[in-house]
Specification:
The structure is a homodimer of 139-residue chains. Helix content of chain A is 24%, strand content 35%. The first copy, chain A, folds into two domains: 53 residues, 2,3-Dihydroxybiphenyl 1,2-Dioxygenase, domain 1; 53 residues, 2,3-Dihydroxybiphenyl 1,2-Dioxygenase, domain 1 (Roll). In chain A, strand 7 and strand 8 form a beta hairpin. Chain A has three helices and nine strands; from the N terminus they run βαβββαββαβββ. In chain A, helix 1 packs antiparallel against helix 3. Chains A and B meet through strand 1, strand 3, helix 2, strand 5 and strand 6 of A and strand 1, strand 3, helix 2, strand 5 and strand 6 of B.
């Protein structure tokens, strides 16, 4: 089977608010947008914002808490971590962990989006990112 | 900012069990593996399995429930949805929703991995997937 994730769907309580956060904070533009669902074309997959209740009904399981999962957005410099976190907070994010140096190297912090989904903003100089945003594991 | 997710980290309670599931169920091979963390090179990003408590400490927030998020793995035929779901269940997944046809078309079901992370297994003939597993939004 391909080592492939096709879609990440984030359940949200207010789609307009979530879209405003991803557009205004990350600066991302949807590839498809309706009052019910929004899709972003990402680096090899699609990110969707969908009503939490719609996702729960589709998945056959009610939403529950914020889970044990984090998405990371890596940036190209240490300074950019703090800059991006500040922009995200300005767009509605909450700081979970202010940026600092983890034991494994680099520099990172965490914010939660308006629905509580965790985002790590990280500088990891070891992992190359190409022009199309594709990220490669490296040590 | 790049429309880019660098890393998805799944918090797990038993790393060996989680690795056995992703290796034995999806058939994915790690690009890096230690007793503490496992990374898979995916289609443009990295997927990590990490101790739930480690992730919680790193993120500055305790894990809580299973969240309102789903990852999807799209397959190339309707039949493959049921086949893949059966293999995943054999490897330790729990069915959340048996596969059927959603109102928006295609065919999909949902399972939870051994730690409760939701995976949608879907056939969506509209979205092309290239040889390297990169998925393109299309209508």
């Amino acid at each position: 089977m391909q080592q492939q994730v096709s879609l990440i769907t984030l359940g949200v309580t207010d789609l307009e608010r979530a879209l405003a956060f991803y557009r205004g904070g990350f600066g991302w533009e949807p590839v498809f947008e309706t009052p019910g669902i929004v899709f972003f074309q990402m680096n090899g997959f699609v990110l969707g914002l969908w009503g939490k209740d719609n996702l729960a009904e589709d998945a056959g399981r009610p939403a529950n808490g914020h889970g044990a999962i984090a998405l990371a957005h890596n940036v190209s410099s240490r300074e950019a971590v703090d800059e991006v976190m500040a922009v995200l907070v300005g767009a509605g994010a909450t700081v979970l962990r202010p940026a600092d140096e983890p034991p494994h190297g680099g520099y990172r912090g965490y914010v939660a989006d308006p629905d509580g989904h965790a985002w790590e903003i990280a500088w990891n100089s070891a992992w190359p990112i190409d022009e199309e945003g594709r990220v490669q594991f490296a040590i």
